[in-house]
Amino acid sequence: MQAQQSDLSPAEPPAIALLPQIGSTIERLWLGLPFHHATPPAAPPANDAQAAAPTTSIPLLTKAETLLLIAEAAVKHRVPAAFVTSIVAAESNFNCGAISPKGAVGLMQLMPETARQFGANPAVPAENIDAGTRYLGWLMKRYEKRRDSIKHVIAAYNAGPGMVDRYRGVPPFRETRAYVSRVMGFLKQFSPSRKEARATVQSRRKTSQRVTTASL
Description:
single chain; Lysozyme; 10 helices; mainly alpha; globular
């Protein structure tokens, strides 16, 4: 896993076509939220279980279940869910059991040392998503004042913030540049269009007005 920060502006929730069967719950996935992480999150001391290597028995989740975890972590850490979803798609293609040759684990491909920093067991999907999203939030704050900060965040997630700082932007590595392009492509796919976002907001306003009128 590696990290990133962003120019992402808060987006209003789009209509969800991906998983209509779970309706309003999944709709939370697409909430665009501001980024607020002034300092790196304080990580609790890792216990022996967390410090141990990930177990081979990694729980498998459906894509719908993974999206629900993403929605919860996005709200908790104030990172756009579409951004988290894009990282998960690029890192593991929603495969909870993914383990890279370098030892990165799970949905957001966390390296064990990064997971320990955030007090998480990377083999547990919920903890993997939570720690990865928290890390994204920290990177977004780190690079928020830079031009093309979203690309800096993505590059840092892949190559590490040290490399992004060293090259003052996306490092000149083929893998990292391909990764940045891939995540940006997913971000366009998962983010709502302005038309969809506007339609969703208008629909919610009408529903709210009907509820208010009915209660009078």
